[in-house]
Amino acid sequence: MKKLILIVLTFLICQTASAEVAVTIYNNDLGLVRDLRNLTFPEGIGEIRFSDVAERIIPTSVHFYSERAELLEQNYEYDLVDARKILKKYVDQRIHLFTEGDGSFVGTLLAASGDIVLKEDDNSIRVLSVSKIYNYHFPTLPEGLITKPTLVWTVQSSKGGPGEGEVSYLTEGISWAAEYIAVTNADDKALGFTGWVNIENNCGASFKDAKLKLIAGDVQILKENRHKGRQIYAMDAAVTMEGARSFEEESLFEYHLYTLQRKSTILNNQIKQISLFPEAEVGKVEKEYRFDYGKWQNKINVSLSFDNTKVNNLNIPLPRGKVRVYKASSTGDLEFIGEDRIDHTARKEKVKVSTGKAFDVVGERTVINEKRRGNDRQSEVEIKIRNRKKESVEVIVSEEIWGDWTMLEATGGWNKVSSNRVEWKVIVRPDEEKIINYHVQKH
Q1: Which among 81, 146, 151, 311 has the fewest CB atoms less than 10 Å away?
Q2: What is the pLDDT of residues 200-221, one digit of tens each?
Q3: What percent of the chain has pLDDT over 70?
Q4: Final residue in a domain of this structure, among 138, 160, 175
Q5: pTM for this structure?
């Protein structure tokens, strides 16, 4: 395997130490960074370089403030070092390179697009394949190339010396979502419900000992063409978990803000999990069997639902996220039985989680007759529900009927729940089959 080695003799970059950093993370791949640093200010007009910012920073969102200086100009430098860029910067300059078989060549670089074109000291021209070169030697790093994205400010200060400066900016590549664990009891009428925060950081920066806040809600973000620097993907992201409830929640505008009551380090290419709330004993859970041919054909969907209330030991805003459901087997081992996503759910609203399709409760729908009369069309539909379980079940049969329609005849107990939907609730005993018929005319 060929290795490309860059040898740079001299290189200088300005570093500044963070005095305090705070990160607010949103649900939609966005973070707000506030970084307070100890800086050295020039006397009069001068330059301050601010490195170690997120590689996926949104440059136009940057705001700098200091009582020590007035900001005159701001630049974002992101021309980051790589071999091809260095080569292009060295066109018409002397370089030293090494090839397979201990070959060594020195000369003036004439071209670096594709193969390397080198003018040697005897004025001969040598063309070298990039794949054959394993080592480049450059005397220095070309001007304008840097190893980290850097904010550069031109400031004016009446007095030089050390002082504090704060920068805030938005960055893409960092997001969070809620993760919930639900453990049902033996008869599925109660469950334990636990909330976790899942943070994924791929923004190209790490934040040490940061004040962490989370915003839950649908914050509007305009989709624009932004410079994103180098894309960072967490192919081998580290996962860390931190237990015990540690967030305080409050309302903020039309959203909810969660503040971690301690500092946390968020590394680049890391997935971090922090407890949102400890297990709540939800005492009233409803299990629903629903037959909706338009959605699931002849399958019957199973879901669990409960109210987000004090009675159920909750009554808290539940951010959007994934719910994984488990149940103990006869040996006491927890087994995974399904998962679903819930939207942002306010207090006193209902949480509904679909777990999958029923095995022992079977549905069957047949159109037994259709005919037209002018512009009208009549349909006769038969629905069969069979229960192969050892206990009775209630099944909601839901039918979608579009357009202007009239129910001519139907099995009793049907309910028009909307302009285009009717439902029946049927109790099916063990090994029983229930049949629903309806005759509808569409105008």
Answers
A1: 311
A2: 999 999 999 999 999 999 999 8
A3: 91
A4: 138
A5: 0.78
